[in-house]
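DM from R.C. (forwarded with permission)

"hey, sorry to bug you on a friday — could you get me a structure for this? deadline for the figure draft is monday and I only need the backbone to look sensible"
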Amino acid sequence: MSKPWDNVRLRIKLRETTYSKPDAEHERIKRRMKILGIIAIVAFGILVTRLWFMQIVSGEEYRKKAESNRIRQVSLEAARGRILDRKDRTLAKNSNTLTVSVVPAELDDEGGVVERLSKLLGMGEREIAKKIEESQAPNQRAVLIKSEVSPDIVTYIAEHQREFRGVIAGTKAVRNYPYHSLAAHTLGYLGQVSEEVLSEKKEKGYTAGDEVGISGVEATYDEFLRGKAGELRLEVDAQGNFVREISRREAVPGNDLRLTIDLDVQAQVEEALRWGVELARTHTDAESGKKYEAPGASVVVLDPKNGEIIAMASYPTFDLNEFAGGISEEAWKTLNDPKNDFPLNNRPIMSEIPPGSTFKVVSALGALNESMYKTDSAFVCNHVFEKGAFKDFPKYCWSEHGRINLFNGIVESCDVVFYEIGYSFFLRQSQDVGKTLWQYASDFQLGKTTGVDLVGEKDGRVPNPEWKKEFNKNRPQYQAWYPGDTVNMAIGQGDLLATPLQMACLYAGIANGGKFVKPRLAKQVTEEGNKAAKESSPELRAVLDIPDIYLDQVSRALSGVVQGRGTASATFDGFPLGAIPVAGKTGTSEIAGKQPTAWFVCYAPVGDPKYVVAVAIEEGGHGGQSAAPVARRILEVLFNVEARGEIKPSLGD
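My reply, with the result:
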C-alpha cells in the first residue's frame, strides 16, 4: 500500500520530468544555433574576402579576361623595309595578298573548324595544328595559316563565319622577292621568331609570333628592316564577328636597306655558275672513270679596295617566295633533303674546303719574306718528291716540269717546288727559326671569319701542332706533327680549310698591296624620304708585314698563270689581257672519299684592281678545267668584253 508521501514524491518527480525536458531541448537548440551562426559568419567572411580579392586585388586581371571575350587585339604589322641593289633596284619588297589566319583563343576546334579549314585550303589538319602550336603567339594574336589563297576562299569564309569561328580571311602584306631565286642566299628569308632570339631581343620590341629574318641580310639587318608594330582593338560578338573599332595605333614602317650587290652582275654571275657546273659534269674523273658530280659551287665578286661585294652566288639555290607567308611542310622537307645537295647552304661563307694550289701564294710570299728563296731560285721536278723524310713516303706532282724556278713554279703550279718550300718551313720550325707557315696563313686572315655582314659564316681552319694535339686528344698516336703536315699545307692540302669568301679576301689583300678590307654587303640604311640612317664605310682588317717588292713579284707570276705556259692560259686565249691584265691562280683540292674540287681566284686589272673573282666548284674536277672558264665569263661581264667563241678549259691544276 502506497504511502501519501510516496504519492507526493511521485507527483513531484513527474512534474520535474515534465518541466526539465523542454529546458534541455532548448539548450541543445541554442547550442546548434550558435554553431550555425559561427559557420554563417565564417562563410560570410570567406565570401567577403573572396569578393574583395576578386574585385580589388585581381580586378584588373578579371576585367581584362572579361573584355577579351568581346575585344580582339589585332597586331598591325609594320611594313618591312625594302632591300635594294646598289642602283636602287628592288630585290625584296612587300606585296598585299589574300591570306587565312587563325586566332587561337577564338578557335572552336570542337566544332570541327580545323577539319573544315583543312578541306577548304587543301592542307593537312596536322600541318594547320603545327603552325598554331609553333607560332608562340599570344592567344589573341592571329596566326597566319596560308597566303596567296583565292578570292573564292576568302568569300566563302566570310559567308560562313559561324562555321569558321576564330578564322580570319583577308588581305595581308607578305614579303615578296621579284627575282625569286636571284641572290637568295644573300637576301635570306623570314620565319617565326625563335624562343632564343625572343629572349635576347624582347627589350627591343620583339614579341612572340613575330616574323623575323632567319638568314641573309634579312637576319643581319632585321632590327632596321622590321619597323614597329601598331595595334588595333576591335569589339566582336560571341561568334567573333566584327562589331566596331575601339582604338588604333598605327605601325611605323621599317627602313630600306641598300646593298653593294649589282643586280645585273648578280644575274650574270649566277648564270655563269650554272653553266660552269654543267660544264664540269661533262668532264670525266681520270681516277674513278666517272663524270664529275659537281653537287655545289660558289662565286664571290668583290672590290678589293673597299670590300664591297658586287655579287655572291651559291649553287644550288632556291626560290625565296616559297617562304612568303610561311613555307609548307613539304617544301621545307624538300629543301633539307640531302639528295637535293642542301640548297639552303650559303656556300661562299659555309663551305670549308682545302684551298689547293690557290694557297701557294701564301707559301711563296712566306718563303720570300723569310729569305728562304728568291723568285729565281732553281728547283727540279721529276714528278716525284722524295727528299729527306720523304724517301720512304714520296709525294708526287701533277706533272713533270723539269728544271723550274719559284716564279714559274707559281705560273705552272708545280707541286714539287712547294713541297720543297714546305719541307724547308718544317726544318726551320723544328729549329725554332723564323715564322711558321701556319703563322703566315693566319697573317693572310685564314682560320678566322672575315666579318662579312651575314649570319652563319664559318672560320675555316689553319692547323698547327697545338690544334692537332687537341683534335686527337683521344688518339695519342696521331698527335705528333710530322713533316708531311707542313708539306701538305704548303700546297693547300692536309687539314687546311678555307671558304670561297676567305680566298677572295686573301687575293684582295695581295691585289690591294697587303691591305685586307672587311667584306660587306650593306651600303646604306635609309629612312622614309630616302634619308640615310646608317652609312657603311670601308673597314681595314689587317695589313701584311711583307715588302711590296715580294707582293709585286708574286702578282707578276699570277699574271703568267693566264698566259704562255700558265695553268689557265687556254681558258684566257682571246681575252684582251693587254688592256685588262688578269692575275689568277688555279687550284685542285683533294678530299678523301670525294672527287676533287676545282678552284680559280683572280683579280683585274693588275696594278689598279677593281674586282676579285673567286670560283669554287665542289667535286668539279681541276681548277683550269672547270673553275677558270667560269671566272673568264664573269670578267667578260664585269669589263664589258665581247665574248669570242667557245671558252676552252685548261688542263692545268
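R.C.: lifesaver. The two ends are 149 Å apart (CA to CA).
me: no worries. The chain has three domains: 4-57, 71-259, 263-638.
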